[in-house]
């Protein structure tokens, strides 16, 4: 085959390759548009779900307050004339109202965590832990818990959300205690690249390895609510707050040997989306 015969073949080959490339680019563009549209729909669905959760939780508060008010009135005015079973039923109503109120509050906090605008600014982590511990003073005293705090650096983020984050983690360390063993929660931190790794370590009942990812999901509960009270939202809220700070959270634990929650947050010079 001479040079004059090879030239048309080469041109046809180049044309076929150009056509294949154009078809691949067209397909890629179509897939990108489809992915963009699905992401947009997912964002809209999530926003609608958050608005619904916020509105529903807020509206549920009103009838719940009414039930709580009348049950308290019955407790004060009529309990003395009630039978033993009547007083028991009234106590069950009050417990259920309290549990529902806690659930609604946690749902509201979860919804707010994605609605709050996070303007990243330097945050004194020691002040955040102090504030979180103050909010838990009653629980800490009730459980005879000890909170040990090491030197803590600054991080970058939203003070209110970070206070809620560590309030939940400290609360878990106090609540999930081993029977007869006073809770001890140790908090420390160390730099990790451009982030800060904060460790919240407890001496509680620990977590089975197969459940250590599940516990960060919404409404995940590993124990009976009568033994360890809670709504199953706390760690999901922690995950949401950490994600808002472009960080991550995990847990290292063995049953009966406590748990260490590790939280990576941006350093004071860092930021997030």
Notes on the protein architecture:
The protein contains 6 helices and 7 strands. It is of the alpha+beta class. The chain folds into 2 domains: 1-115, Orthogonal Bundle (Helix Hairpins), CATH 1.10.287; 121-266, Histidine kinase-like ATPase, C-terminal domain (Heat Shock Protein 90, 2-Layer Sandwich). It has a 5-stranded mixed beta sheet, covered by helices on one side. Helix 1 packs antiparallel against helix 2 (84-115), helix 3 (125-135) packs across helix 5 and helix 5 packs antiparallel against helix 6 (234-244). The chain is extended and about 110 Å long.
How are the strands ordered across the major sheet?
2-4-5-7-6
Radius of gyration: 27 Å
> Strand portion, in percent?
15-25%
Gap between N and C termini: 62 Å
**Count of structural domains:** 2
* CATH homologous superfamily classification of the largest domain: Histidine kinase-like ATPase, C-terminal domain
Q: Indicate the overall shape.
A: extended
**Unreliable spans:** none
Annotation field: number of helices: 6
Largest sheet: 5 strands, mixed
- In CATH's first tier, which class of the largest domain applies? Alpha Beta
- The helix-and-strand class reads alpha+beta
Produce a short descriptive summary.
With 273 residues, the protein is of the alpha+beta class.
Main attributes of the structure:
single chain; 273 residues; alpha+beta; Helix Hairpins; Heat Shock Protein 90; 5-stranded mixed sheet; two-stranded antiparallel sheet; 7 strands; extended
Topology:
Layout: H1 3-77, H2 84-115, E1 121-124, H3 125-135, H4 137-142, E2 146-149, E3 154-157, H5 159-175, E4 184-192, E5 195-202, H6 234-244, E6 248-253, E7 259-266
Parallel strand pairs: 2-4
Antiparallel strand pairs: 1-3, 4-5, 5-7, 6-7
């Amino acid at each position: 085959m001479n040079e004059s015969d090879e030239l048309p073949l080469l041109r046809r080959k180049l044309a076929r390759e150009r056509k294949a490339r154009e078809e691949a680019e067209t397909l890629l563009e179509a897939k990108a548009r489809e992915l963009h549209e699905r992401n947009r729909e997912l964002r809209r669905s999530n926003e609608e779900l958050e608005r619904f959760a916020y509105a529903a939780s807020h509206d549920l508060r009103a009838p719940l307050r009414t039930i709580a008010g009348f049950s308290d009135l019955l407790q004060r005015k009529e309990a003395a004339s009630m039978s033993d079973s009547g007083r028991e039923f009234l106590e069950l109503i009050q417990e259920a109202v309290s549990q529902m109120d806690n659930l609604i509050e946690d749902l509201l906090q979860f919804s707010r965590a994605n609605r709050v605008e996070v303007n990243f600014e330097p945050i004194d982590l020691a002040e955040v832990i102090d504030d979180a511990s103050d909010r838990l003073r009653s629980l800490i005293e009730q459980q005879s818990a000890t909170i040990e705090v090491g030197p803590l650096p600054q991080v970058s983020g939203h003070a209110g959300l970070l206070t809620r984050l560590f309030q939940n983690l400290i609360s878990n360390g106090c609540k999930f205690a081993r029977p007869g063993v006073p809770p001890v929660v140790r908090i420390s931190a160390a730099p990790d690249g451009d982030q800060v790794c904060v460790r919240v370590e407890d001496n509680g009942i620990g977590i089975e390895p197969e459940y250590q990812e599940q516990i960060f999901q919404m409404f995940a509960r590993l124990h009976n609510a009568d033994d360890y009270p809670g709504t199953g939202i706390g760690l999901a809220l922690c995950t949401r707050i950490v994600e808002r700070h472009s960080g991550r959270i995990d847990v290292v634990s063995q049953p009966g040997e406590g748990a260490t929650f590790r939280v990576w947050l941006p350093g004071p010079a860092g930021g997030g989306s």
